[in-house]
Amino acid sequence: MAQKTFHVEVYGCQMNKLDGQLAADRLRAMGLREAVGLRDADVVLFVTCSVRQHAEDRVYSNAGKLKHRKARQPGLVIGILGCMAEKDRDDIFRRLPHVDFICGPGHLDRLEDLVREATARGAGGHLAALDAPRAARSPGDVDDHLEAFELGRLTPVGEHPFHAYVRVMRGCDNFCAYCIVPYVRGPEASRPPSAILDEVGRLVAAGVRHVTLLGQSIGSYARQEQGRLWQLADLVRAAAEIEGLVRLDFVTTHPKNLSDAIIECLAAGPPVAPYLHVPAQSGSDRVLRAMHRGYTIGEYRERVAAARRRVPGLSVASDFIVGYPGESDEDFEATVALIREMDFSQVFAFKYSVRPGTAAARLDDDVPEDMKKDRLARLLKVWSESALRSKRALIGRTVECLVTGPSPKPHLDAAEGGDGGGRMQLSSRSPGQQIVLFEGPSGLIGSMVPVRITRVSPITLFGEAVAV
Ligand code: SAH
Ligand code: SF4
Ligand code: F3S
After folding, report:
1. What's domain 139-392's superfamily in CATH?
2. How much distance in Å is there from the Cα of 400 to the middle of ligand 1?
3. Of 44, 99, 163, 281, which is least packed with CB atoms within 10 Å of its CB?
4. d(CA 23, ligand 2 centre) in Å
5. What pLDDT does residue 415 have?
6. What single-letter DSSP state applies at residue 132?
7. Atom of ligand 3 at shortest distance to CA of 14?
8. Tell me, what's the pLDDT at 136?
9. Which bound ligand lies closest to the C-alpha atom of 357?
10. Pocket test for ligand 2, best of 179, 251, 287 (most atoms within 8 A of CB)
């Protein structure tokens, strides 16, 4: 019999990218191989996101398209993983009756059983591995049954071949008024530091040079081990000691948790990258209060300023929601002003999307869709102008870049393309996660190279390697 194949389709955040890779690992260990695409796969998994309506619509549409194929080919196994499995637990089999199983993020270790059972049953299985209601579980419960699964990972996964994500926490307890994450990912739980450090060590031994630690609210990491309390700063300091690791960063830091101890970790320098993802969400105190974010914009400014004082050249990335219920022109202008002022290295901005069951869902979603669209476009325009200004300020500076591979689009700039002498246009990442292209030998791939920035475009930096 021909070897069975699988396809994993991932939506949503870095947590999901990691879960998608862990799922793929497990299928490989079961003897399946990766299909060329969704069309050829015998097992299709959707790792889903519920953070906005649009992300869910895409899954319902793409998974819906498999209905006729499942009718023709009952042996096809279709699974819905991720946050939507928890959120739409009662709806998925009604809307997508051809789906075989649903599996919440806290039950990934059940994947192998689910695939086997669905395969044995053929069509009409409808299996589910989901959390008990959040209220029935004690806060801080560590999902230790997931530890073995998590630690069994075979392959690194990240943004490029030398990068890996490592989860340090599960869930979230912040309950920002608009957000579904605490409901679908469950209560906050910090993984044991020894397990995290072990995982980082093994990834580095396998060739990973850059690790990103992941948590929805990573600044609240706390775990007792052998009589000692570990917080994020302790964990970062310990991971930074691992030989061979050249870059280490962590996301996402809630502004209220951006402690001096975390700032000191950043100030310690390599391998800790001068990069901070600290979402503001809005520039208006009124909106922040309505969002239950737990800080004022003055406090946000103060924390970021404190970090920048200690870490010159710090890259600060932020998220924003436009069109939150009740957001006035004045509130929105406060957000625009913040973006103009703050010099964010990256901005992720979204139109507010009502999430059923959250506190904000009780409010009137009163900003019209057209206005949300206009505000989003304006916000991104203001940010790209400010980003170009700060990129230009980098011209002439030298930055330490991790070379990730050949430039995927060398035709972008023919003048800097290959010259046939073993040199080629290489792609690299700056400490602030920006893409830097420069010419050099392929032997540099995987190493750190100082690159002097010579030219910038709105999305990419160009430079030349500095001889060392
Ligand atoms: N834990 C992270 C991010 C969680 S979701 C944090 O707290 O920063 C990623 C981003 O999606 C959020 O930062 C927010 O900007 C956006 N988001 C969350 N819920 C949303 C909603 N209901 N509508 C629109 N955007 C939302
Ligand atoms: Fe959602 Fe807030 Fe938790 Fe982030 S911190 S995941 S925005 S509830
Ligand atoms: Fe989406 Fe779940 Fe991540 S809702 S943003 S995939 S935590």
Report:
1. tm_1862 like domain (3.80.30.20)
2. 31
3. 163
4. 24
5. 47
6. P
7. 3
8. 60
9. 1
10. 179
Is 352 touching ligand 1 by the criterion CB < 6 Å?
A: yes
Q: Return the domain boundaries, the chain.
A: 5-130, 139-392, 398-465
Residue written as token pair 């993802």: 277
The number of beta carbons lying within 10 Å of the beta carbon of residue 48 is 29
Does domain 5-130 sit in CATH 3.40.50.12160?
yes
Which residues have C-beta atoms less than 6 Å from ligand 3?
Answer: 12-13, 15-16, 49-51, 82-83, 180-181, 184-185
- Name the stretches of the chain with pLDDT < 50: 411-420
pLDDT per residue as tens digits for the range 382-438: 999 999 988 998 999 999 999 999 998 764 444 444 444 568 999 999 998 899 999
Prediction pTM value: 0.94
- Take atom 3 of ligand 3 and give the residue whose Cα is closest: 13
Q: Please give the C-alpha separations between residue 187 and each of 11, 278, 330, in angstroms, as whole numbers.
A: 22, 21, 35
Tokens of 256: 């209220």
Q: What is the chain's mean pLDDT, rounded?
A: 93
Atom of ligand 3 nearest to the CA of 180: 4
Q: For 107, phi and psi rounded to 5 degrees? A: -130, 25
Closest CA to 304 of 266, 329, 276, 285: 276
Which ligand lies nearest the alpha carbon of 51? Answer: 3
